[in-house]
Amino acid sequence: MKVADVMSKHVDAVSENTKVKDVALLIFGRGINGVPVCKGKKIVGFVAERDILAQFYPSLADFAEDPFREGNFEDMEAKVDEIFELSVSKIMSKSVTTVTPNTPMLRAQSLMFVNRIGRLPVVDQNKNLVGIIAQGDVFRTAVGDKLLFTENEDYNDWLSKTYYTTVDNEDRLRHEIPDLLKIFSKTNVKSVIDIGCGTGDHSIDLARRGFDVVGVDRSEEMIKEASKKKQSLAKGPLERLLFVRGGLEDVQQRFTKPFDAAIILGNTLSHNPYNVQSFLKTTTNLLRDKGVLVLQVTNFNKVIREGNRLLSFNFTIPSGENKEHAFLEFYDKPNLRDRTILKTFAILTNNGGKRWKSSGVRNSLMAYNTKDTIRKRLENLGYKKILIYGGKFDGKHWDYLFRKPFKESESDWLNIIAIKS
What we know:
The chain has 421 residues and is of the alpha/beta class.
């Protein structure tokens, strides 16, 4: 692969007369570590973060003249205004390593590695600046693109340390548990399997109310957090609750007695992009005759058509922290051929009210489930009674499960009750 395949053609460049302050703003604003210095289209230098930082320290002549004053690091910091007024020509590196569009990508990476630099200007045959390549470009191409998508287990481990620590679980339980209890009472449910139990809040609440509950999740971090919460239970509920890390196959091997109900909440079903039918079949096999299956799935069509692909964008300050987080969730348009949809989840962090920075981005490929596809899958498994409802969710505030009709242009959740025949 050549440099031309991965380089950025839009290049931020400055002139020799640009002030250091303006370069610093450019570096911060673009999230880069340096920019080329050009005269016309010709490169005459390169200025990087380290070139700016070097100005805080004394030159050899300065140190020889006054070694004690220049050794005061607090005084050195005070030089920032003076440094800001310098012209780039005073601090730039004049010896610039460059590559051409036809340079092999990994040859460019080796030059960056040997020269301990993070970016290389790309020049044409006339030495004119035509692009720039960074180590991040090489890494994404050579490594990141080969990873494709985040595995669901890793995705949930990541969320357990970030997003789920800020979810208002009490508000969610206040809305969802009463509806579950009503259905369970009507269908004589005593035992429940909570598939994709996350940090265990529904499982713990149901155990407190007298149900025998098994919570299962593939995420090690989720199960660790759920197990910690479990320790607050009294002896009776504690004995009625078990958390299992693994998939449904682990549950099948471990439990022979069928469950009265299975709940699959929070879009867990969609985290199985290529095996939704087998996932539902295995779940069905875990249920007794007349057992209850409860599904909660994101209404993708509303997100795509009404929300312009944006699922949620929320700000929060986690308890005990002095930094603010912004959570951004959006979807690509679905791939109708293989019935999948790509979700992107990004977190931004502000550590003191001055600047935001990225704290991570994850992609997760999901099954593109809709009301019609899920109904058909359940009918194929022999479910005769299928009830469909809608619910709202704005990223913070939850809704009841089974009190509103499902409306494709309005409902955020698709909530389903299915009774095993």
